[in-house]
Amino acid sequence: MQDQITLDRRANLIGSLWMIAAMACFAIEDVFVKAASVTLPVGQLLMLFGAGGAIVFVAAAVVTKTPLLSADVVSGPMRVRVLFEVLGRLFYALAIALTPLSSATVILQATPIVVVASAALVFGEKVGPRRWIAIIIGLIGVLIIIQPGSDSFSALSILAVLGMLGFAGRDLASRAAPKTLGTAALGFYGFLAVVIAGAIYSAYEAVPFTAISAQAALHLSGASVIGAAAYAGLMKAMRTGEVSAVTPFRYSRLLFGVACGVFIFGETVSTNMLLGSALIVASGLIILWRSRPAAVPTQRR
Length: 301
Description:
By secondary structure, the protein is an all-alpha fold.
């Protein structure tokens, strides 16, 4: 029994480190995307970024001999997942390009809160009064950050909220996705959805593509490689330790994202953002704590 406890703790530690590494990579990916958006139209950026990430996962599938084509790819949950992936990627990329990286990152942290609330409504999962209160507190945190109705409100901040809702829908659909689809397949189709999002926005924006400079190519390559590494690290984290032990470290992305916004792009962090982010993180941690399974008592021999 003691050996099993030691193994579980080791797995949780390793899983937590994978999660922190994945969140750091996601923050770096956002930096590359925001830097590339300075010289490239958002639609073109998304198409190239998505294509680069898809190529990385194709290579991973070849190395691991994982099939990318199967009947499960066109299942109902996967079609819904791709739809929400397109919405999430498009609006979050716009948020990164047009709003401060730090505020977009903070708003994104409300994704798990929306997932829990949606799971109760869509899948009928049991959510007690205390978790509903935590969900409401987290959503209040989002409202404090975007400040609707105030003089400092910017309609562009809604882009990050829409991106967050898209990612929440994607995560919710992933719960119903066929278990036969591995990380390489999910990653490939996830980045393929980014290409679709870019194509849709390019058609809407009707802005001609621009020549890609060496610096923009470097930013796109970095975003694709780091983004694929982040996705793989996230999957590794979720499959290594206990979900309740590993998931709280998702919020380390907030620290990485805000730090990148402040030190790389010279952004400032307002009191409202600090208060809102504190409410979002506290809400998420309360939800995770309330959802932990009760320990099974062991018989003494």
